[in-house]
Amino acid sequence: xxxxxxxxxxxxxxxxxxxxxxxxxxxxxxxxxxxxxxxxxxxxxxxxxxxxxxxxxxxxxxxxxxxxxxxxxxxxxxxxxxxxxxxxxxxxxxxxxxxxxxxxxxxxxxxxxxxxxxxxxxxxxxxxxxxxxxxxxxxxxxxxxxxxxxxxxxxxxxxxxxxxxxxxxxxxxxxxxxxxxxxxxxxxxxxxxxxxxxxxxxxxxxxxxxxxxxxxxxxxxxxxxxxxxxxxxxxxxxxxxxxxxxxxxxxxxxxxxxxxxxxxxxxxxxxxxxxxxxxxxxxxxxxxxxxxxxxxxxxxxxxxxxxxxxxxxxxxxxxxxxxxxxxxxxxxxxxxxxxxxxxxxxxxxxxxxxxxxxxxxxxxxxxxxxxxxxxxxxxxxxxxxxxxxxxxxxxxxxxxxxxxxxxxxxxxxxxxxxxxxxxxxxxxxxxxxxxxxxxxxxxxxxxxxxxxxxxxxxxxxxxxxxxxxxxxxxxxxxxxxxxxxxxxxxxxxxxxxxxxxxxxxxxxxxxxxxxxxxxxxxx
Length: 523
Hints:
The chain is of the alpha+beta class. The chain contains 17 helices and 14 strands.
């Protein structure tokens, strides 16, 4: 969204971008080798109908004539993000013509076993990780230029007339995560251990030179993912410099009106995705900055970026109606992939942001700048309850057709519209209501867990984590997925399930809850 006229933060951009450049993390590179040759098995009981079975041959691969094999599938044992490296080892005669190979990378088995064409997805076909490489020189390393994210790899021979073997196949895997700084209790249940390990793997794969949303797709920095990744990072890798780097990137790339755009790219130079102003994402920026301050005590950074955080709230307050509720029209408000009315959850999101921004202001000595907001929050809470809270049903209800969603109750709790006692009643009621709109992604499930814990629903929160994230573990997840519906393995917001991201940042937060509430999850 480009704007003409005065640039709100024009005098600060150069400084902020320079700090962002100075805090760019160094990637750690690890060579990861395949652990098995595998064969695909169609299995209706497996996730998305496919699984791989180990078969012999890995120990002899570097001497096997690939001209005769023609195709092989390798399992790297875990999810990796990086560049594939290999070489053609000459067997006998010299290489007298190029060799053409096709590589298909998959995060889950179905990606290697569902045909991509004719293309059925609603996003670009180019996101699929199939590459063709022509090799003209043998017996030296070849590094595929495209960075990929995968566990499984199929290599197919498309053309080549001389005898050769595939040798030295490995992934130069990258992450900026570093070492894990925390440990679980010795008596922590195995399923919680498993969920925590997959959470950590998910976060590490998404920690590149920014907090990516997904290393396969979309490979960019989104504000919503940044917030959740920074929370998970507090109780794991504690790479707070990466959070600082991302905060400064977003600040430097606000639009001319001063608004944060929802996501940004790093290359060839840092730039936002113009036209992606998501109001609910921009409103998370003050919370990210507050959490960063809580983690680091870096008050200088918090004060430096305070104008950006404050501006997002001031801009959104223009939506306040005379009845002290917020107008949610003509704005992109994201809470989930689920199709739902967003007006009611937006009220809670606004109050949450107001409360967080006031706390941030007080922490950095700028409380006098938000004095008018302190009494305003009470008025908004009263106005929202009057308009949207159906006391007889113990539910927040949308005036648009009386829709009831889990999301509306969750954000009413997080925003302080409902008391913990009222919130527990609302969640109990909505989760038992068959026609209520339910979460459609781990992103929304994170906030459901947060709401449950705020309401004292400890047992239900634990049960929800074990059922939902544990469900992905039981279905073979190495990293947690962008989309998960326990009743539908093929759910896909983009019309084609292999296009889903199977390592996605917004799914990594179980580790945050497990460590923040050890009495709930580690016993």
